[in-house]
Structure to design on (357 residues):
C-alpha cells in the first residue's frame, strides 16, 4: 500500500540561499541541493538544511550517480545571460549554458516533475531558447507548461515577474495547471511594518543587528550622494536614483543592490534598504536569518537572486496537490482499466490553502 503521508522528495539545483526551497520545505522532503558559491550555501545550510553540496554543477554532472534520484528537481539556473540588464549572451554564454546542463541532468535522471525558473528575458528576447527547451523536454517525455508569474499577484510586496517552466513526466498523465494569484496588493508599508530604523554599523562590521539583518552602513550610496543625485541627476547613467514608495509594491529587487543601492533607496531615509527590508520585500518570513559572517554584498546578492516566497509556496502546493492526488487516482484506476489519470484543477484550491497548507 502506498503511504500517502510520505512527502515527495526534492533535489535542488542552483540553490543560492534557498529562497525557492523555502517555499517547498514544508510540503516536500528536500534531500539534496547544490550551489557553487560557499557564502550563499552558508545561509542555505542554516535556513534550509545541511544537505547542500558546494561544487560546480558542471563537475558534478560528469558523474550523474552523484545526484540522488528524487520525485522533483527544482532550480533557477543563473539568469544573467537572459536578463535585459545583464550580459545578455543567451544560451551560448557560460551562465546561459547552465540551462542546458540542468536539461541534461533531467534527461539523465528523469524525475517525475521539474521546475525551472528564469527571468522574463527568456520568454522575450531569448524566446528561441525557450522554444528549444520546451521542444527538447517534450522529446525526452515531459509535458511542459510555461507561465510568467508576477509575485505581486500572490501577495508579495513586490512587482517581480519571473518565467516558470514546469514539466510533468508523460507517463503520469498529469497536465499541470499553474496556480492563479489573486491576492490584495501588498505595499512597501506592509512589508516594513514593525521595523524601526536599522542599527548603524561600519561597512566591514559582521554584526547581525538587534533585529537580525536589519543594519545600515549609510554608504553605497551615502546620504550626500543620494542628495547630489537628486539635485543633479546623471542622464547617461544606466541606473538612476530610485526611491521605494510606501503605498505601492516595490519594483523588482535585483542582485544589483549588492553593488550600489541607489536603485533601492528607503522611502523616507537617505540609505539603501537593509537586508531585512529586502527579505521582507521578497515576502520572506523573519525566521529566515542570514548569518552575519557572510559579507554584506553577498547577503544582498542572495536575496536579489531569489524567488519570491509566496510564489515558491504557491507553486510547491499546486505541484504537491496535483502530483499526489493524481497519483492516488492512478493507483485506484490502473488496477481496473489500465493506465489512466484524471486532471486535478489548481483552481480547486483557494489562495489561503496555497499559502498556509
Ligand atoms: C538565480 S540564483 C538561484 C537562486 C535560488 N533559486 C533562490 O531562490 O534562492 C542562481 C544560483 O546559481 C549559482 N550558480 C551559478 N553557476 C553555478 C554552477 N556552475 N554550479 C553551481 N551553482 C551555480 C549561483 O551562485 C546562484 O546562487
Amino acid at each position: 500500500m502506498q503511504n500517502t503521508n510520505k512527502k515527495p522528495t526534492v533535489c535542488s539545483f542552483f540553490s543560492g540561499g534557498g529562497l525557492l526551497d523555502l517555499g517547498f520545505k514544508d510540503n516536500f522532503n528536500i534531500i539534496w541541493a547544490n550551489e557553487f558559491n560557499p557564502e550563499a550555501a552558508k545561509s542555505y545550510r542554516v535556513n534550509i538544511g545541511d544537505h547542500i553540496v558546494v561544487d560546480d554543477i558542471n563537475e558534478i554532472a560528469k558523474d550523474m550517480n552523484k545526484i540522488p534520484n528524487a520525485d522533483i528537481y527544482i532550480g533557477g539556473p543563473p539568469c544573467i545571460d537572459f536578463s535585459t540588464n545583464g550580459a545578455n549572451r543567451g544560451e551560448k554564454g557560460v551562465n546561459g549554458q547552465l540551462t542546458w546542463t540542468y536539461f541534461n541532468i533531467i534527461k539523465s535522471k528523469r524525475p517525475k516533475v521539474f521546475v525551472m525558473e528564469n527571468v522574463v528575458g527568456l520568454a522575450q528576447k531569448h524566446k528561441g531558447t525557450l522554444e528549444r527547451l520546451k521542444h527538447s523536454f517534450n522529446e525526452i517525455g515531459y509535458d511542459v507548461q510555461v507561465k510568467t508569474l508576477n509575485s505581486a499577484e500572490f501577495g508579495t510586496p513586490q512587482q517581480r515577474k519571473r518565467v516558470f517552466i514546469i514539466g510533468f513526466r508523460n507517463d503520469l498523465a498529469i497536465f499541470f495547471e499553474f496556480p492563479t494569484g489573486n491576492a490584495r496588493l501588498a505595499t512597501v508599508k506592509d512589508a516594513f511594518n514593525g521595523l524601526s530604523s536599522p542599527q548603524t554599523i561600519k561597512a566591514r562590521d559582521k554584526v547581525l543587528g538587534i533585529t537580525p539583518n536589519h543594519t545600515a552602513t549609510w554608504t553605497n550610496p551615502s546620504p550626500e550622494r543620494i542628495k547630489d543625485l537628486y539635485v543633479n541627476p546623471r542622464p547617461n547613467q544606466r541606473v538612476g536614483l530610485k526611491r521605494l514608495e510606501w503605498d505601492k509594491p516595490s519594483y523588482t529587487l535585483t542582485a544589483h543592490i549588492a553593488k550600489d543601492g541607489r536603485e533601492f533607496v528607503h522611502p523616507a531615509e537617505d540609505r539603501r534598504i537593509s537586508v531585512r527590508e529586502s527579505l521582507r520585500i521578497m515576502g520572506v518570513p523573519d525566521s529566515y536569518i542570514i548569518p552575519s559572517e557572510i559579507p554584506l554584498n553577498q547577503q544582498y546578492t542572495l536575496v536579489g537572486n531569489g524567488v519570491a516566497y509566496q510564489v515558491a509556496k504557491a507553486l510547491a502546493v499546486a505541484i504537491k496537490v496535483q502530483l499526489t492526488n493524481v497519483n492516488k487516482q492512478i493507483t485506484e484506476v490502473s488496477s481496473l482499466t489500465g493506465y489512466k489519470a484524471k486532471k486535478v484543477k489548481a483552481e480547486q484550491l483557494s489562495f489561503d490553502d496555497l499559502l498556509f497548507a
Summary: DSSP finds eleven helices and nine strands in the chain.
